[in-house]
């Protein structure tokens, strides 16, 4: 439609140009006519001058012939000469030629004057005609313009309508039943447009028709007008064709849009069905999600409060637990002290029952050093029912000894230590304890007390026990263990860990009245473990 409009506009401009050309030609023609009439006027003037000259010549000739002064004036010339000179025949012959010339000239003049008059009238008429034609042209142009404008308006309206319709079709894809209605509306609109077009066409026709009939004075002008009209007709026909084409195009576009809309609508329907099923399946999920989300939101909102509450309760629980532990500790400590008390009592009881000094006997097995044969046999026998009795056959006479306990040759280091173990713990409870071995050289004192590295004796085991007991009580008690070593040899007391072992020491009674003995200046080493003690001994 826009293209057609542009084309029409172009056509219109072309027509206007042509009209302008025509007008120019008309003015040129007018000027031509005017110059011709002016030329004619000039000719007339020249002729008049000639006539005047002729008249003067005639007057001169007359005065020469009859002595009549020449009173020649333009008006009296003809009558005077005719009336006066018509009498004498011989003279008439002489003046016949000038008279005939004058008559001819007069006739010619009058003819020329008539012609001038006629030409003038014609010119005026032509002027009028040109004027009329120009007016007519202006009118026709105006109407053409109007009709073109109307047409453009109509086209604009139609295109707008078409656009609206397309938009409506697009927007109403989801409602197919409405499309048909809109198409119908568009069709009705286009019928209306057609009608308007026809009206404007007929108006054009009407406007163009009278041009040829009314005018038609000059064939050239007429042909020009005809040409112009033919041009107009052609333009009109073209316009009609354009309009037809546009109409067809519009119908085609509408049809296409409709079919496309139908196809799209179908696709949209299918999509819609898919979306609907999706929606149906999604709805429960959405519900669950919403529910979950809400509950989560609630939880999140309540979380700080919950956390605070939990922290408070946890703190309270911890506090309570600590309190419980404290009270339990107190209770345990109380029990422990009571237990300690009880043990002390038990120990005292034991000491009372078993006696402060206990004596054990240990018989070592026969060794290679004892030699072989009947001499290499034990001189002691044991009582199977009483482990506290030892029999000795001496010079055929049996002597029995009663001790606190007797260890046979097969007794292990561990068994021996078990008997003295209680004494070690008594030492931790604050009692003075002394374990010593007494016997003949080679009887097994060193073996019993020290033992071997693979099978340690009482010393090592007592120390192991001592330190493990101390470690177990370290939480509640502080123990300081120190080691010193002395030897009594040939009635002399010697410091085995001292720097000068030869120096003689003294044993003295404690001045606090406790009855304890002590050795002033005795070397002492603080020890933390069995290894420390071994080191001390190694250095010694
Ligand atoms: P003492 O120190 O009394 O002079 P020892 O302890 O040196 O005697 O013992 C002498 C020998 O007898 C050593 O070779 C020792 O290994 C051994 N002996 C001592 N008692 C036992 C025993 N109960 N079992 C095995 N061998 C022993
Ligand atoms: Mg020894």
Automatic annotation (TrEMBL):
- Gene Ontology cellular component annotations, sorted alphabetically: microtubule cytoskeleton
Which GO biological process categories is it annotated with?
A: microtubule-based movement
The record lists the membrane-crossing segments as none
Q: Which GO terms describe its molecular function?
A: ATP binding; microtubule binding; microtubule motor activity
The coiled-coil segments of this chain are 5-64, 102-175, 229-256
Q: One of this protein's Pfam families, by short name? A: Kinesin
Q: Ranges for the Kinesin motor domain?
A: 356-540
Q: Source organism's superkingdom?
A: Eukaryota
Q: Where in the cell is it found?
A: Cytoplasm, Cytoskeleton
**Binding-site list for ATP:** 439-446
Assigned protein family: Belongs to the TRAFAC class myosin-kinesin ATPase superfamily. Kinesin family.
Q: What is this protein called?
A: Kinesin-like KIFC3
């Amino acid at each position: 439609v826009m293209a057609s409009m542009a084309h029409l506009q172009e056509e219109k401009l072309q027509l206007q140009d042509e009209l302008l050309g025509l007008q120019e030609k008309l003015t040129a023609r007018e000027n031509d006519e005017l110059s011709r009439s002016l030329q004619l006027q000039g000719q007339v003037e020249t002729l008049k001058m000639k006539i005047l000259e002729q008249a003067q010549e005639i007057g001169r000739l007359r005065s020469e012939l009859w002595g009549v002064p020449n009173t020649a004036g333009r008006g009296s010339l003809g009558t005077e000469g005719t009336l006066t000179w018509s009498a004498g025949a011989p003279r008439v012959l002489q003046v016949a030629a000038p008279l005939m010339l004058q008559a001819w000239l007069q006739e010619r003049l009058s003819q020329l004057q008539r012609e001038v008059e006629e030409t003038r009238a014609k010119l005026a008429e032509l002027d009028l005609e040109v004027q009329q034609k120009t007016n007519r042209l202006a009118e026709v142009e105006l109407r053409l313009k109007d009709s073109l404008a109307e047409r453009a308006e109509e086209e604009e309206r139609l295109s707008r309508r078409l656009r609206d319709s397309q938009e409506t079709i697009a927007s109403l894809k989801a409602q197919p039943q409405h499309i048909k209605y809109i198409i119908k509306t568009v069709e009705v609109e286009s019928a209306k447009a057609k009608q308007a077009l026809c009206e404007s066409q007929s108006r054009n026709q009407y406007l163009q028709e009278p041009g040829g009939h009314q005018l038609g004075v000059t064939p050239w002008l007429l042909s020009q007008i005809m040409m112009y009209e033919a041009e107009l007709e052609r333009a009109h026909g073209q316009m009609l064709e354009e309009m037809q084409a546009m109409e067809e195009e519009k119908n085609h576009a509408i049809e296409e849009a409709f079919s496309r809309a139908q196809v799209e609508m179908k696709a949209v329907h299918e999509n819609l069905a898919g979306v609907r099923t999706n929606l149906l399946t999604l709805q429960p999920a959405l519900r669950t999600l919403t529910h979950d989300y809400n509950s989560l939101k609630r939880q999140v909102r309540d979380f700080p409060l919950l956390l605070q509450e939990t922290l408070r309760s946890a703190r309270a629980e911890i506090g309570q637990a600590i309190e419980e532990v404290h009270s339990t500790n107190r209770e345990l400590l109380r029990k422990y002290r009571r237990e300690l008390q009880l043990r002390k009592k038990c120990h005292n009881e034991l000491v009372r029952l078993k006696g402060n000094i206990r004596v054990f006997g240990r018989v070592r097995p026969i060794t290679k050093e004892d030699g072989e044969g009947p001499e290499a046999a034990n001189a002691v026998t044991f009582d199977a029912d009483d482990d506290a009795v030892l029999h000795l056959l001496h010079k055929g006479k049996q002597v029995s000894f009663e001790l606190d306990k007797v260890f046979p040759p097969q007794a292990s280091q561990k068994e021996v230590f078990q008997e003295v173990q209680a004494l070690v713990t008594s030492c931790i409870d604050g009692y003075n304890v002394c374990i010593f071995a007494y016997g003949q050289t080679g009887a097994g004192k060193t073996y019993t007390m020290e033992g071997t590295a693979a099978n340690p004796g009482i010393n090592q085991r007592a120390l192991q026990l001592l330190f493990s007991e101390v470690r177990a009580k370290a939480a509640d008690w502080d123990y300081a263990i120190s080691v010193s070593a002395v030897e009594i040899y040939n009635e002399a007391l010697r410091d085995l860990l001292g720097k000068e072992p030869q120096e003689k020491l003294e044993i003295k009674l404690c001045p606090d009245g406790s009855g304890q003995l002590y050795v002033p200046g005795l070397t002492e080493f603080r020890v933390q473990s069995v290894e420390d003690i071994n080191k001390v001994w190694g250095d010694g």
